[in-house]
Amino acid sequence: MDIIRDELAELGEALVLDPLALDELRADKSGHVASAAPLALVEARTIEHVQLALRFASRHGIPVVPRGAGTGLAGGAVGDAGELVVSTRRMDRILEISADDELAVVEPGIINADLNARLAQHGLWWAPDPASKAISTVGGNIATNAGGLLCVKYGVTREAVLALKVVLADGRLISTGHRTVKGVTGLDLTALFIGSEGLLGIVVEATLKLRRVPAGEPVTIGASFGDVADAARAASVIATSSVRPAVMELLDARALEMLRTWFQAQGETVDLPGGAYLLVQTDGADAAREAQELLPIIASLGGVAQLAPDAEAGERLLRIRRSFHPALESRGTVLIEDVAVPRSALPAMFAEIDRISSEFDIPIPTIAHAGDGNLHPNFVLPTRATGSALDVPEHVWEAASELFRAALRLGGTLTGEHGVGLLKKRWLGDEIGDMQLELQRGIKAVFDPQGLLNPGKVL
Amino acid sequence: MDIIRDELAELGEALVLDPLALDELRADKSGHVASAAPLALVEARTIEHVQLALRFASRHGIPVVPRGAGTGLAGGAVGDAGELVVSTRRMDRILEISADDELAVVEPGIINADLNARLAQHGLWWAPDPASKAISTVGGNIATNAGGLLCVKYGVTREAVLALKVVLADGRLISTGHRTVKGVTGLDLTALFIGSEGLLGIVVEATLKLRRVPAGEPVTIGASFGDVADAARAASVIATSSVRPAVMELLDARALEMLRTWFQAQGETVDLPGGAYLLVQTDGADAAREAQELLPIIASLGGVAQLAPDAEAGERLLRIRRSFHPALESRGTVLIEDVAVPRSALPAMFAEIDRISSEFDIPIPTIAHAGDGNLHPNFVLPTRATGSALDVPEHVWEAASELFRAALRLGGTLTGEHGVGLLKKRWLGDEIGDMQLELQRGIKAVFDPQGLLNPGKVL
């Protein structure tokens, strides 16, 4: 500790040693809590702060955990005993907005929704749209290659980043990528950094590819189905129709049941009949016509559709989906899984979830980004005492393992958008195999030969 | 040679030793011709053929040049003395087309246009659209992260590939990526392979992300302007309007001049007045309305627009642009450059091209994918004798150097979509710097520790 105080003194108030503050770094939103608090926190305000911290850490062989707002769902940003946490949360300035080039240059700590509020003043928009956008940072979105509700139409984070500045493990600063949409000079390090979960370096600046805000108001449809198989089929037919929805979310029977109880407890009456609910939103100049085209498709597959008469009513329908996690959290600690399967395998994956739920006798309320086959099955655990480690009973891990295996069998992946972090590390080899693990570790060693960045996570 | 004949005997007719056939491998479409023919050619029919060839090469330390149709513009696939060329051109089967999951699984040797002809029967389409699509392979498109005319709206190759099978330098086979649109398990090796120009492995299978063919007919506008600055400004205003064109191509005065002469020599009359020509195409259900919206924009910036009354007339307008390279080639050997700048810098880059053209007293006819700031300035050299090395006079290289420096100064890149290969290698360090070069070489060494894949190219 003395060595930290001495050698990092020039960081001033950016160096945080307060035990209460350090204790908070043991957790993120995954439910995982580290066994002990990290050594210290550097709340960087500048690129130089990050470089200073990493030069210090590499000099002394101290492990470093990069962190943004701490909203990760896989334990990728939790600090543990003996580690130095370097947060870029306070580096939250917008350095440039160019409407002509449809790009913005930002520091990594800016909150996704705050950035988009500023961009909206210019008629612009950064498409990555994780459900956490009100609390997660752009840097975190980049570290996990975040997806979200809108990526069925607008792509994931990797498709919305042009260039990066990254501080390497030894404190050196590199710039990757271009201010241009195209550019093929050498290996694509920008793409490699996106989704690398803090293993290769700390992103300290990003040039983001923007879009124009779509014209007009989005139009929203809520549709009730008898069961999830019918709803999944409808999603599949819609996805292959000529209409490309911006949002397509599917809630299963367990999810609806929990929502009904939750809304009732809030004293609200929400009409949620049936065994599955499909929420579809179209946007752009043709939103209304496109929504009209979807109504007969939904009806022909047994759905009862409700077309929101205006944007405000549409927001009320979307609120049903947004209330899902609060509803779960009111019952305990939530372990959110994140499998993805080819879209056509969505009904099969729901059937597998049903089977696993019965076999292990655990309710697994599930919501899916149906347009891209990404499902979030949830386990609700008894709420733990504050600050204690996540207490996941072994049979829940077994059920989760079964889920992952089922997704892989169906041609899918164990994480669509949350990342591997600590929580999914033990299954990574099952998906990518030993040869690829070895290559990935080799790449990691090129960037971080001492193995100091986020040790013990992902690989 | 005996060792090749002996140890690769089981390849049968996939092993090619015919001197005439080997001689052809000294060149691609870049104009570069290697000093001597390679040792041998493996025209792989199967993944096992590729593995066999690479196991053999790594056993004996023989350099390997991966090759597709040989249409590259940077010399990335030319075979030289002592090298083994491994071609995947004959691995051209479509293994699967899934309309439900909007994906296709293909071998790398299939020609882009042939694939799209087959996909069209299912109402599907693979978006990467290099001008070479009638002759270039999907594997080559992946190796260079090919762009093209349509990527202003539909993105580059990296955004249209889900998964790869790759044979590594030592003959091992790995699978990267997913059949799902989302997936974040570990580092993104799929993205790393895309655009890696044969340095990291040989792609032997690709899972491609498809789109539905847009509804309706595309609508085409051709517009004449007084000079290229006005036309570039119009392109910029269109690009930031609410309309997103599928194609936006710009030809400068020199290009038009050559086209006029060429059409005349063909005995054709084509109306091409003015000092610059802008070609814009809209597509999708709203194509006609969108095109109408562009007409007043063009007029307000001094352009004289001609709206094609039907798709056939639109094709005639597009033919003007497609005739550009034949027109150049009729005058000599063409050296095509490929700089890209932020879109707002397009007028400035055209001014730089004008300046360099005057300073070096060389005509530099230029065409631009104006929607994404990608310019192809061309040098026409006296036609060389067949099979002799590209004879680029030093002052042409100097003019090209000036072009690259200008593009970098404007925040751009020295290659937007053709790749580095041999031809741009000497400028790569200027763009990405020594630290990044070192990291890229480190990654290369992880995949290819003996340095056998495409040695002397790119890095």
Q: Please name the CATH architecture of the largest domain in chain A.
A: 2-Layer Sandwich
How far apart lie the N and C ends of chain A? 29 Å
Tally of strands of chain A? 18
Helix count of chain A equals: 15
CATH topology of the largest domain in chain A: Uridine Diphospho-n-acetylenolpyruvylglucosamine Reductase, domain 3
Taken together, the total number of domains of chain A comes to 4
**Major sheet size, sense and barrel closure of chain A:** 7 strands, antiparallel
- Low-confidence blocks of residues of chain A: none
Mean pLDDT of chain A: 94
| Helical content band of chain A | 25-40%
| Range of strand content of chain A | 15-25%
Class derived from helix and strand content of chain A: alpha+beta
Radius of gyration of chain A: 22 Å
- Oligomeric state of the chains present here: homodimer
CATH hierarchy class name of the largest domain in chain A = Alpha Beta
Question: Could you tell me which chain pair has the largest interface and how many residues each side has?
Answer: A-B, 84 and 84 residues
Shape of chain A: globular
Strand order of the largest sheet of chain A: 15-12-14-13-17-18-16
